[in-house]
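User: Fold this; C-alpha cells only.

Assistant: Input:
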Amino acid sequence: MDKKHINHDINLPLQLLVSFDQVMSFYDQYVEDENHPYHKSAVEIVKYLDNYPELREGIKDFSKIEQYSDQIDLILDGLFPQILTDNEIKVATIPFSFQSFYYTNRLKTILKNAGEDYDFTARNLAEKEMYLHACVMILNVCYGYKIDLKRPFYFDIPDVNLGITKHYRVAFNGDFCQVIPTENAPKITQEDVHLLLDNFDNIEVWKEKFPQDSYIFKGFGIMNLFDVTFDETLSSIRSNLLRSDDNLLTDVRQNLREFFNIKDLELGYSVYVSGKKEGKSITRIKKSESLIFSQEREISCSGFFCDGIAQKVFHKKETLAISNVDEYGERTEQNSFYQRLKNKGIQSIILIPINAKDNGDLAILEIASPRPYELNSVNQQKLRDIIPVFEAAVTREAESFQNILEATIQEHYTSIHPSVKWRFYEAAEKYQAALTENVENPLVEDIVFDEVHPLFGQSDIKGSSLARNTAIREDLTIQLQLAIDVLKGALEKANLPIYEELAFRISEYLDHTQEGLNAGDELGILEFLKKDIYPVFRHLKDTDEDIAKLVNTYMNRLDDNLKVVYEKRKAYENSVTILNNKLANYIDKKQEEAQKMFPHYFERYKTDGVEYNMYIGQSLVKDKTFHSLYLYNLRLWQLQNTYEMEQVAHNARKEMDHDLQVASLILVHSNPLAIKFRMDEKQFDVDGAYNIRYEIIKKRIDKANIKNTTDRLTVPGKIAIVYSQDKDAREYIKYIKYMQSKNYFGKLEQLELEDLQGVSGLRALRVEVIYQEDFCEKSSITIDELMEELK
C-alpha cells in the first residue's frame, strides 16, 4: 500500500474495517461441498487463512495491510486473475478514504508513467463530501431508500512519456461491503429523510442524524477504470446546448429526463435584468420560456419570491432546490411563487441562476417535477458537471440577442449617447418581443425623457462670417487679377476688341468684389469665368507660348478640387479646424470626468466654434437616484470647463494663421422639461409647446444686445451667463466669486438684455476671463477639488 495515500484523519459516520470476510465465505462454501472442484484447494486455503483471523474480523489500522500482502494476494486471486492483470485497469480500495491497496499490472504501469508527484485521487470527489456520501450509502443499504447521489467520477492521470493527460471513468463494485449499525446509531424516520434531502449543504444536520462512527463499514471495494472522455448523456447535453434552434429546449428537456430518470420532468428558463422604477427595485424579464411566468414583463423579486429565494438565487447566484412545494407554501404563507407552482402542478423544482458574461443578464433555469422529493438538494449536485455548458450557452444567446438589439437600434434610431442607450435597448426589446408574439404591425415606441434639466453652452468664433467673407474676397481678387493679366498679355500680342471687352468685364467684377460680396456673388463670378473666359484661355494656350505661360500661371493657382484660388480661405478654414478640434477634443475629454459625477445626456456640435447640449434628471438613468446636487455639480463643471476652453482657444492663437477668438455663452434654464427622440431627424429635441421657448432662446441668444445699447452680449474675453430667475444668478455669483479668488475671473457685470422676438425678461452675468499664458489641462482644477473648496 502506497503510504502517501494513507489518511489517518478521516471523519465519517462509519468505522472503516478492511475485511475479506465476504470473499472468504466463498471458500467456506467450497469446503462444505465435497463435490465442488475447488473443495480440496479451498480446505487448504481456509486452513491457512484461519491463522490470520483479522482478515475476517477487519483491519482497523490500515498500515497493517502491508504485512498481510501474501495472504491478500491469495484471497484476491479470483477477483484479480493474473491472465487479465495486464489488460484490466482495476484496483482494490478502502471506500471513503481515498486509499487503495491492490492494483493490476496495467494500472501500476499507468501510475508509474504519471510521475512521482501524481496523487491517485478522483477529480470530482471532494474529501469534504465523503461524510455525505457515506450517509446516503447508509440510507440506501440499511434503510432501503433509493436516494440518488450517483455522479460519474473521473481520474485525470498524466502520462509523462506522452506529455498528455488521460481521463478515466470509475465503475465501483461494492459487493464485498457490509454496513452495520452500532448501538449508538439513531433510528432514521421518514421525516428525517425529508429534512436531509433539503439540507445537502448543512453538514451539521447530517452529523446529527448520522453521528461519527455510529455505523461499521466492513469490507473493501473494487474500482474498475475505463479510458473515456465523456459520459454519453453529458456529451449529448453539451452538443445540444451548442445549437441554437427551435427544438433546443425540447431536446435538452429529454436529456435531463434521462439524466434524472424522471420521465415527465419539465424544463424552462427566463432571462432577467435588474433595475429601478419609481425608486423601487424591480427585475425585468427580457426573454422567457418559463414554467413559472407567462405574460409578465416585470416582477418585484422580494414581492413574488420569498426573501430566501430572492437572496440566494438572484443576489448570491446560488442554485436552490425546493423538494416539497406544499411544505414551501406552508413556510411562506402560500406566497405568489408557491401559488404559481401549485397551479402549474409542480411539486419539486430546482432553480439554477446563470450569469451571462459582460452584459449583466441573469438566466434562471427551471427544472421541475410533478412529484415531491424527486428533485432535491441532493440530486441537484448531479448538475455540477453541466452548469458550465449552460453558462456558455446563456452567454452565447445573450451575445446573439445583443446583436439583434444593436441591429434594431441602428435601423430605427442612430448612434446614441451611452448614458441613454439603456432606454433604446428597452424599446428594441419590446419591439422584438412584439415580433416574436406575432403582433400585427408592431411599432417602435417613442423615446421620451420627462423632467430633465437642460444645460446649453457655446464657444463661438467671433466674427467668423466676416473673416470668411474677407478670405473669399481676397481669393477672388487674386483670381480675377490673374485673369486680367492673361488678357492684357493677349492684347499685347493681338489687339483684338474681344480681349479688351472681357478684361473690362473682369475689372467690373473685381471692383465689385473689393467693395464687398453679397450672397450668390461668388457663384456668379465663377460661372462667368467658366462660361466666357476659360474657352478663350484654352484657345490662347494653343496659339502662343508666352500667353500659354500666363494661362498656366493662372491655372496653377487654382485648387485641384475646387477649381478656384483657395489660399486665404484655406488658411482661414485651417485655423477654424485647429480651433474647433482643440475645443471639441477638450470638452469631449472633460466629459468623461463629468459623467462620473452622475450620468447625463451630452451632445456636441462643431460649427464655427463648439456648442453643446446637456440634460440631467431621474428619467435618464436606469438604476441610480437623482438629486438636485448633481445638477449644481454639473453647472459648476460647465462654468469651470467654459473658462478652460477660453484658455485653450487663447493658447491656440499662436498656432493659427488667422487670429481667431471665441465668445463664450452659458444658458441657464430653471425649469425641467421633456426631450423626445425625433425619428425623422435621428436626434433629441425638446418636447411640448411650452418647452419650445427654450429652443427659441438657444437659437437667438448669441445675437442679443445689452438693453438700450447696440452692444452685443457675447464678446471675446468674457463669458456670458444668461438667466431669467434671480436664484440662478445668486448660484452663479457664488461660483464666480470663488473663481475670482483664484484669479481665474476679473470684473463681473450684471446686465439686462433687449427683448428677442418672442422672448423677453432675460438677464445676464458677464465676467472677464483672465488668461494664463502657460495654461495646460494638467494644471486645471478638477471638479472634485472645486466642490471641496466651495463647501
